[in-house]
Amino acid sequence: MPKYDFDSYLLYELKKRDVYSVKIRVILKEKVDGAVLTEAAAKAFRRFPYYQKSVSVNEEGAYVFEPCEHPIAVIEGDKQVRLGTEETGGLLFAITYENSDIFFSFSHNFCGGCGAMRWIKATLWQYFTDMGHSVDAAGIMTPDTPITPEEQAQPDPSSLPEGEALGNFNFAMDSFVPMKDYMERMKDPNGIDGYYPIRISKAPLMKYARDNDGSPNSILAAFLYKMCVKALPEESRFTVGIANNYREDVGCPDTYRDIVREMHIQYDKRMQDWPVDKLSTVTRSRMYLQMQPEISWERFRRVDALRRQIDAQPDLESKVNYAFENSPTTHGVPSSFHISYVGKVNWGGLEPFIEGVYSLTIAHLMCEVNANEKDFFVSFHTVRKDGKYLKEFLEVLDEEGVGYTVGELTERRLPTTVLP
After folding, report:
1. Which of helix, strand or coil describes residue 125?
2. How confident is the prediction for the chain on average, in pLDDT?
3. 123, 140, 157: which is the final residue of a domain?
4. What backbone phi and psi angles, to 5 degrees, belong to 29?
5. How confident is the model at residue 166 (pLDDT cuts 50, 70, 90)?
6. Quick check: 57 and 65 in contact, CB under 8 A?
7. Residues 20, 65: one domain?
8. Per 3-state DSSP, what percentage of the chain is helix, strand, and coil (rounded to 5)?
9. Is 39 helix (H, G, I), strand (E, B) or coil?
10. Do 109 and 203 have their domain in common?
11. pLDDT of res. 342
12. How many domains, the chain?
């Protein structure tokens, strides 16, 4: 087993390439009271001691966590915060707010959207309770909810079975990748790291998915492929990367930790005129093959071996370089676009107070998807200001009869993480 805290190893990559920042925007139905939020956030954050940590470097050049007693920072304004600094009390979590929006910022090494939702729901429950509302706490980790071993579980590679997955997954490496868009963004002093907030009613989209042999992921993948065909008719192959949470496969179904790998589906010219139901069927069949637990076991063994090799490096610089150069996230299949679906979150008694939820990460041509009882909330990530890709994506929705509303292009203002 690696020597140090399970949550610390992504920090080495982060030091070299600060792309592991997450910000979740929750839109309330009323203006935020900053003073109440500050007190409520402090109470709720104490429920999660595994997040209450700052980072230091030990004598072996390894990143280690230390308990941090500072209250979580609550800052007015939709601004970019510097996690791990005095601004956030050394914590890698922070909250900002503006008008009716609350922004929950954090470093991805601790958790992803699934894990963060527990903290977010706890904070919102405490906030609305302190505002004088009676909020049902079912499904919410309130400050007095006991912390369980299952909540903090991490995989044990020695306990994972041996097995060989069915099928061979060899992907062509010549898919379109939107590198020119990134280059244009870098050359443009007024460029944007932004997103369009899109709301799609849940009931009709789920009916559409059922009628077209699909799930939210497979239908969205098919829509985005059709978008690419419209926007990039000169390209011949596109690959979608779809996030797959494999916590259950490795024996940690209830952990707060982000144990995720990526599935890939490739589309080519032969498929450009296929209807959505056929695209969805092919997408789902390839997803099922890649959801085999044997693949998860092998993936985690690779992750565990990488971490032990990081430990073996003699100093911080060597650890950082080794982690970056051998990262499975930077040396995987190049994707044209990505989908990450947190899944249906049980907002319970919070549902009447929430207008929308949007997850924001560093990406281009990525759809981050959240859902409540009534709607899907899609963050359509882009670095372009001319509407390319969004225009074609909405055309596909129109052609398929899927209703939506879309907001203005909005800057993400993602947090940065400062490490020693």
Report:
1. helix
2. 94
3. 140
4. -90, 5
5. confident
6. no
7. yes
8. 35, 25, 40
9. helix
10. no
11. 84
12. 2
DSSP string, 285-296: HHHHHHT-HHHH
Token reading at 241 = 């990367």
Handedness of CA 414, 117, 246, 206 (dihedral sign): negative
Contact 102, 34 (CB under 8 A): no
Do 207 and 255 lie in one domain? The reply is yes
pLDDT band at 186 (very low <50, low <70, confident <90, very high): confident
Mean pLDDT for the stretch of residues 279-288:
95
Q: Return the closest-CA partner of residue 95 out of 78, 115, 118, 111.
A: 78
Indicate if 179 and 53 belong to the same structural domain.
no
pLDDT at 343 over 90: no
Q: At 90, list the tokens.
A: 């050394």
pLDDT, one tens digit per residue, over 70-123 is 999 999 999 999 999 999 999 999 999 999 999 999 999 999 999 999 999 999
Query: If DSSP codes are grouped into helix, strand and coil, which group holds residue 237?
Result: strand
Q: Among residues 340, 360, 358, which one has the least CA distance to residue 406? A: 358
Backbone angles phi, psi at 118, to 5 degrees: -65, -45
The two tokens of residue 162 are 């041996």
Q: How far apart are CA 275 and CA 400, in angstroms?
A: 10
Alpha helices in 250-331 (DSSP H): 276-290, 293-312, 316-325
Same domain for 208 and 281?
yes
Domain ranges, residue 106: 6-140
Query: And the tokens for 356?
Result: 């929308």
Amino acid at 12: Y
DSSP string, 383-416: S-SS-TTHHHHHHHHHHTT---EE---EE----E
Do residue 86 and residue 186 come from a single domain?
A: no
